[in-house]
């Protein structure tokens, strides 16, 4: 066992040997002698890099006591991924691995057509992969309390007996580099852009009149007015700022929930200005060098002709998890902001997961936040979306009150679903199509707002508190504690009464606790965020607290809302 002189504590040159253990075979696990693990400064089950004719990564477990100190045990797939033959030298080093946001794979037509993304993620859970790696479907044992039987059963049912010998190829990962497949990773077949293939299609240049005027931006006119003023001073009247000793530089971060209309706001405000748009998620999926090159190309384009550089979903390009290439990207953006006649605008639905350096004084030092629309704004948005649609007896006040947490994208999806119902009815009746109240109400049972995750969905239905038999005291207590403060906030404020902030429902299993919560939400037309107590617990430090913060953040964004913590004793 020899160590390179430049980093003796972090890298070792070992001899590759084939691991014949069926327990580890093709599961992304290599085995090291305990002294090698100690020399690398890692712990068992940490990731390591393996460098032969190419570099890959794997999870390192402890080898048995009879394994030679200078040997690393690899299966046939790991040997191939590192470009090694048995008995040759391999450089093993400690490596930093990030949780994968997304992983893209290719495989046989049988595998890609029969294995769902959910099952695919189960098979890869806990494995460390890099672009170009071959990876098997054999699931990795993640330790006590976990089981691979469910994943194995699904794979056998999908592919048949050949699933154990199936090999896939990793064609893309985000972030770029060695990543670990996590329960929240997006694992897909052959979609996305493979790293190393930059494309100018990620950058668009347009000079066009907006599809609407600022006055038509329902619910975001104050933010639009600010942005209009900032752009006018920075691009049209920079001499005013220079006279006062201030630079005419402008960088703005526009944040808000997904689908709220951030890009529409920017396009409308920019009007007939030259707008250079860079797609953040597509650029962020590239290899580091290509990522920087794409940003540099966009900056050069906007500097050559002036105008506004718009980066959509900038958190995908500059995540909070700092990467080395981020400093180079930020340097390119500083060049754009410092150029006279150029403004930088970035949008993000997750500003808390954004590289903090983007908010530096010489970058995006100003921020606009777009809130979720309230009931009055939702009604105005519905009126605007239905302006040219033939309708019949619509009560938009009712629809607006029943759509808490909906953004303009959700409302557009709601109208599309209602239009399908109206068109189907018109086709059967032979009558001219008209959108009715029943169509919109029916669509509400199908459309789920973007602000609410699928795991939080609680089926409310048409049941109300009046439909709950008995439990008179519980119904009255919930009405006073939950509904009255929402329905009569002025009365509570006038009387100086602080409304209750939470209610504990307890009782034996099957007594109707969840049912009465469902009825309460339906009666008050509340947005419901439900989660089981056990789902909030996590072994990682800070993860449980983060889950609670995210839950209540989504609840605040979709107010009036009801947070339902089921089985809180867990």
What's the helix and strand layout?
Blueprint (H helix, E strand, L loop, with lengths): L10 E8 L10 E4 L1 H7 L6 E5 L3 E8 L8 E4 L1 H6 L7 E6 L3 E2 L2 E5 L2 H6 L2 H8 L3 E2 L4 E3 L12 H11 L7 E8 L4 E2 L5 E4 L13 E4 L14 H16 L1 H6 L6 E6 L6 H9 L4 E5 H5 L3 H18 L1 E6 L1 H4 L6 H15 L3 E7 L17 E4 L5 H11 L5 E2 L3 H6 L6 H22 L5 E2 H8 L27 H16 L1 H7 L17 H12 L2 E6 H4 L6 H15 L3 E6 L4
What is the CATH class name of the largest domain? Alpha Beta
Helical content band? 25-40%
Overall 3D geometry?
Answer: globular
Rounded to an integer in angstroms, the radius of gyration calculated over CA atoms is 28 Å
Largest sheet: 6 strands, mixed, barrel
Number of domains: 5
Please explain how this structure is put together:
The chain folds into 5 domains: 11-95, Barwin-like endoglucanases; 99-189, Vcp-like ATPase, Chain A, domain 2, CATH 3.10.330; 200-369, P-loop containing nucleotide triphosphate hydrolases (Rossmann fold); 375-450, Helicase, Ruva Protein, domain 3 (Orthogonal Bundle); 455-566, P-loop containing nucleotide triphosphate hydrolases (Rossmann fold, 3-Layer(aba) Sandwich), CATH 3.40.50. A hairpin with a 3-residue loop joins strand 3 and strand 4. It starts with 10 loop residues before the first strand and ends with a strand. It contains 21 helices and 23 strands. With 570 residues, the chain is α/β, with parallel strands linked by helices. Helix 4 crosses helix 5. The strands form 6 sheets. A 6-stranded mixed beta barrel has the order 1-5-2-4-3-6.
């Amino acid at each position: 066992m020899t160590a390179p002189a430049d980093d003796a504590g972090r890298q070792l040159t070992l001899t590759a040997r084939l691991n014949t253990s069926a327990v580890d075979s093709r599961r992304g696990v290599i085995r090291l002698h305990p002294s090698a693990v100690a020399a690398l400064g890692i712990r068992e089950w940490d990731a390591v890099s393996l460098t032969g004719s190419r570099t890959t990564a794997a999870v390192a477990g402890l080898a048995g006591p009879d394994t030679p100190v200078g040997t690393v045990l690899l299966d046939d797939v790991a040997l191939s991924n590192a470009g090694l033959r048995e008995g040759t030298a391999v450089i093993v080093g400690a490596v930093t691995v990030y949780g994968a946001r997304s992983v893209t794979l290719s495989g046989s037509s049988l595998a890609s057509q029969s294995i769902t993304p959910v099952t695919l993620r189960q098979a890869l859970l806990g494995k460390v992969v890099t672009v170009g790696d071959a990876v098997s479907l054999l699931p990795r044992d993640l330790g006590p309390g976990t089981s691979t039987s469910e994943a194995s059963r699904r794979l056998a049912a999908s592919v048949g007996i050949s699933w154990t010998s199936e090999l896939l190829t990793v064609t893309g990962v985000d972030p770029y580099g060695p990543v670990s497949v996590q329960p929240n990773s997006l694992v897909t077949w052959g979609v996305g852009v493979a790293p190393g293939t930059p494309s100018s299609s990620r950058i668009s240049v347009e000079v066009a009149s907006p599809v609407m005027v600022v006055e038509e931006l329902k619910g975001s006119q104050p933010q639009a007015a600010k942005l209009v003023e900032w752009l006018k001073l920075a691009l049209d009247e920079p001499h005013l700022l220079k006279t006062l000793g201030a630079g005419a530089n402008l960088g703005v971060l526009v944040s808000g929930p997904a689908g709220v209309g951030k890009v529409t706001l920017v396009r409308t405000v920019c009007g007939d200005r030259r707008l250079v748009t860079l797609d953040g998620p597509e650029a962020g999926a590239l290899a580091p060098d290509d990522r920087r090159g794409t940003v540099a190309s966009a900056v050069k384009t906007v500097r050559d002709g002036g105008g506004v550089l718009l980066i959509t979903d900038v958190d995908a390009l500059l995540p909070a998890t700092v990467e080395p290439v981020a400093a180079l990207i930020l340097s390119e953006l500083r060049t754009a902001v410092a150029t006279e006649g150029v403004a930088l605008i970035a949008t993000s639905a997750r500003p808390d997961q954004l590289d903090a350096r983007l908010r530096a004084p010489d970058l995006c030092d100003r921020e606009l936040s777009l809130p979720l629309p309230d009931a009055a704004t939702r009604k105005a948005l519905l009126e605007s979306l239905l302006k040219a649609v033939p309708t019949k007896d619509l009560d938009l006040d009712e629809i607006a009150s029943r759509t808490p947490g909906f953004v303009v994208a959700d409302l557009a999806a709601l109208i599309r679903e209602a239009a399908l119902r109206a068109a189907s009815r018109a086709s059967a009746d032979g009558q001219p199509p008209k959108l009715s109240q029943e169509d919109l109400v029916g669509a509400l049972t199908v459309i789920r707002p973007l602000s609410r995750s699928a795991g939080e969905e609680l089926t409310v239905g048409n049941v109300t508190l009046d439909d709950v038999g008995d439990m008179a005291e519980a119904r009255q207590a919930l009405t006073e504690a939950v509904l009255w403060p929402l329905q009569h906030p002025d009365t509570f404020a006038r009387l100086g009464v602080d409304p209750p902030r939470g209610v504990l429902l307890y009782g034996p299993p099957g007594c109707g606790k969840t049912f009465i919560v469902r009825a309460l939400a339906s009666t008050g037309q509340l947005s419901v965020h439900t989660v089981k107590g056990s789902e909030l617990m996590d072994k990682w430090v800070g993860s449980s607290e983060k889950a609670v913060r995210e839950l209540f953040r989504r609840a605040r964004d979709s107010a009036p809302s009801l947070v339902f913590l089921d089985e809180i004793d867990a």
